C-alpha cells in the first residue's frame, strides 16, 4: 500500500516489524508525534506550493521554450515583406485582370471571376492551372517593376530563368530583405526554438529566414487534390524524419509557387481544400494534426473575413476540442474589425486571445521575453 500511515507506538511498546510489502514512504520506530513531524518536514527542504498566475503572453513564451507553439503565417505577411502593401498588390491584380466589380480588395473572389471568364473564352480555353500561372506571372511583373534594374537585367539574361519559381526570382532580386534583423518578423520567428511552421503563403520565404538563422528546414505541401499525390513528400523520402528546432518543417497548407497546380487561390479551390481536409485524414500528415492539437497557435496576418482564415479555422482549428488545446493568440493587423465581436467570436469558438497591434510588434515582445527566459 502506498503512503501507509502508521501510528507511533508508546515508549513501553516494541517497534512493529516492517512488513515485507513495498512501502514508498512510511515511518516506523519508537518516536513521539512531534519527532515524527520533524522528520517528515526535514525529509524534503521545500516550501509550500504557490500558484503563480501568468498572463497569456507569459504562458505563450513558456510554450515556445518547450517547442509547443505553432505559428500559422498568412500570405499577407509574405506580400507585405516583398511589396510593402498587400492592399496595393491586390488592387494591382484587379487592374491587371480588368476586374469590373467594386470588391477590388477580395483577391479570392477576383481570381474566381477571372478563372470562370478565362474558361469561357474560346480563345483561351483555360484549365484550372491557367489562373494560377497568370497570378504568378502578375507577381513576377510587379516584382520586376520595383526591383533594382541591374539585378533584373542579370536575372533576365540567366538561361535558367524559365525554371525558376517566383520565390527563387525574388531571392535573386534580394526580396524580401533579411538585413533588418528584429524588424523582420520572419527572422524573429526563425530564431525561436520551434519544430514546425505552418503557412498559407505561396512562397518559400519562411524557409529562407530559417536558413539565415542557421537551421536546416524541410518543406512539405498539403496534398489537397489528387494531382498533388505525385509531389515529393519528406515523410516518404525520409520516414524517420521528426521535425526539430534545428531541422524544422515548413508546411505549406495552400501550396507553393514552385508547383502552380498546388495553389489554393480561387473560391472553388478553398472549398475543395476544405472538403478534402475534412474527409481525408491522410491529406494532412499525422504530425501536423498532432501539433494543431497540443500546441499554442499563433495566427499571424489574418482577417476574420478572409477565405484563408475561415477555411483553415473551420477545417483544421475548430474541429479540435477546445479543452484539449492550449491557449492560442490571433494577431489583429487591421483596424476595421469590430473589437467586441472579434474577441467574443474567437474566445467562444476556439479559446483564442486577441492581440491588437502590428504583427512585428507582437513578435518583438514575444522574442524579447523568450530571450530573457533563455539566458
Ends: how far apart? Answer: 44 Å
The count of β-strands is 7
How would the global form be characterised?
globular
The number of distinct structural domains comes to 3
- The succession of helices and strands, N to C, reads HHEHHHHHHHEHEHEHHEHEHEH
What is the tally of helical segments? Answer: 16
Structure description:
By secondary structure, the chain is of the alpha/beta class. It folds into three domains: 1-47, no CATH class; 56-79 and 176-374, 3-Layer(aba) Sandwich (Rossmann fold); 86-171, no CATH class. The chain contains 16 helices and seven strands. The chain has helices at 33-43, 56-65, 75-83, 86-96, 107-120, 130-146, 149-157, 166-172, 185-191, 205-212, 234-237, 267-279, 286-294, 307-317, 339-350, 359-374, and strands at residues 69-73, 196-199, 218-221, 249-252, 296-300, 328-332, 352-356. Strands 3-4-2-1-5-6-7 form a seven-stranded parallel beta sheet. It is globular, with a radius of gyration of 28 Å. 32% of the residues are buried.
Tell me briefly what this model is:
With 375 residues, this protein is of the alpha/beta class. The protein contains 16 helices and 7 strands.
Summarize the helices and strands and which ones pair or pack.
Elements: H1 33-43, H2 56-65, E1 69-73, H3 75-83, H4 86-96, H5 107-120, H6 130-146, H7 149-157, H8 166-172, H9 185-191, E2 196-199, H10 205-212, E3 218-221, H11 234-237, E4 249-252, H12 267-279, H13 286-294, E5 296-300, H14 307-317, E6 328-332, H15 339-350, E7 352-356, H16 359-374
Parallel strand pairs: 1-2, 1-5, 2-4, 3-4, 5-6, 6-7
Helix pairs in contact: 2-16, 9-10, 9-16, 12-14
Amino acid at each position: 500500500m502506498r503512503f501507509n500511515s502508521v501510528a507511533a507506538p508508546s515508549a513501553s511498546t516494541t517497534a512493529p516489524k516492517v512488513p515485507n510489502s513495498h512501502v514508498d514512504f512510511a515511518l516506523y520506530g519508537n518516536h513521539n508525534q512531534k519527532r515524527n513531524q520533524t522528520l517528515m518536514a526535514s525529509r524534503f527542504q521545500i516550501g509550500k506550493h504557490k500558484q503563480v498566475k501568468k498572463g497569456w503572453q507569459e504562458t505563450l513564451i513558456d510554450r515556445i521554450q518547450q517547442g509547443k507553439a505553432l505559428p500559422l503565417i498568412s500570405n499577407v505577411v509574405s506580400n507585405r515583406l516583398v511589396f510593402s502593401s498587400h492592399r496595393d498588390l491586390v488592387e494591382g491584380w484587379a487592374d491587371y485582370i480588368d476586374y469590373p466589380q467594386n470588391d477590388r480588395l477580395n483577391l479570392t473572389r477576383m481570381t474566381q471571376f477571372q478563372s470562370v471568364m478565362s474558361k469561357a473564352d474560346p480563345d483561351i480555353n483555360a484549365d484550372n492551372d491557367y489562373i494560377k500561372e497568370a497570378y504568378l506571372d502578375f507577381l513576377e511583373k510587379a516584382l520586376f517593376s520595383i526591383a533594382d534594374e541591374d539585378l533584373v537585367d542579370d536575372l533576365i539574361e540567366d538561361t535558367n530563368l524559365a525554371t525558376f519559381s517566383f520565390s527563387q526570382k525574388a531571392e535573386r532580386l534580394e526580396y524580401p530583405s533579411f538585413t533588418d534583423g528584429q524588424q523582420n518578423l520572419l527572422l524573429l520567428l526563425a530564431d525561436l526554438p520551434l519544430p514546425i511552421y505552418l503557412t498559407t503563403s505561396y512562397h518559400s520565404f519562411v524557409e529562407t529566414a530559417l536558413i539565415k538563422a542557421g537551421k536546416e528546414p524541410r518543406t512539405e505541401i498539403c496534398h489537397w487534390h489528387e494531382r498533388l499525390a505525385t509531389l515529393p513528400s519528406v515523410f516518404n523520402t525520409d520516414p524517420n524524419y521528426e521535425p526539430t528546432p534545428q531541422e524544422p518543417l515548413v508546411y505549406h497548407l495552400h501550396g507553393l509557387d514552385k508547383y502552380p497546380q498546388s495553389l489554393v487561390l480561387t473560391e472553388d479551390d478553398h472549398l475543395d481544400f476544405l472538403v478534402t481536409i475534412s474527409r481525408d485524414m491522410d491529406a494532412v500528415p499525422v504530425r501536423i494534426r498532432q501539433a494543431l492539437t497540443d500546441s499554442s497557435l499563433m495566427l499571424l496576418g489574418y482577417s476574420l473575413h478572409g477565405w484563408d482564415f475561415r477555411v483553415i479555422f473551420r477545417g483544421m482549428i475548430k474541429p479540435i476540442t477546445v479543452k484539449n488545446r492550449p491557449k492560442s493568440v490571433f494577431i489583429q493587423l487591421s483596424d476595421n474589425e469590430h473589437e467586441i465581436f472579434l474577441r467574443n467570436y474567437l474566445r467562444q469558438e476556439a479559446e483564442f486571445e486577441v492581440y491588437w497591434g502590428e504583427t512585428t510588434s507582437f513578435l518583438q515582445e514575444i522574442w524579447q521575453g523568450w530571450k530573457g527566459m533563455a539566458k
